[in-house]
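Hi C.,

You asked whether I'd gotten around to modeling the 157-residue construct. I have! Everything is below, sequence then structure, no commentary in between.
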Amino acid sequence: MADIAFLLLTFFLMTAVIKSDKGLLLLLPPPPLIDQPIAETKERNLFSIQINSQDQYLIEGVRQSEILNMKDEIKRFVLNYGHEKNLLENSTAAIVSLKTDRGTSYAIYTATLDQIQQAYFEIYGERAGITPAKFRSLDQNIPAEKQYMIKHALEFP
């Protein structure tokens, strides 16, 4: 009887499907090498977004209650190319920093992250001459589409 119970237990453990939660799909940069010095970041090249535990925003040092025009501010920052003295001097040095408190709601975090990604997809789509949705649907695993992305969108002057 114990053998049959053990076999049934083993069978159910081996055949059961455990649903795993899906998280945010983000491509993180590789960790720095041990001997590699950390480059100094100029304040001018950093677009800062902070969210506190009451879901209030601090965007570039200005307190805001909503993120209605954050996408446009990010686009203006990234596409500056050194025209405005207080904004980004070189588009390859652009850093959009998002910091949250422990109590920030997940919905606010994902909405903010979506705004940041949407700004970049609009920039890339405009450079490639296609809609942001079409650019987002390109598959990096297909060599022709990956080349198209690199050639038309990801190169900045």
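If it helps when you're writing up: Residues 106-128 form the longest helix (23 residues).

Thanks,
B.
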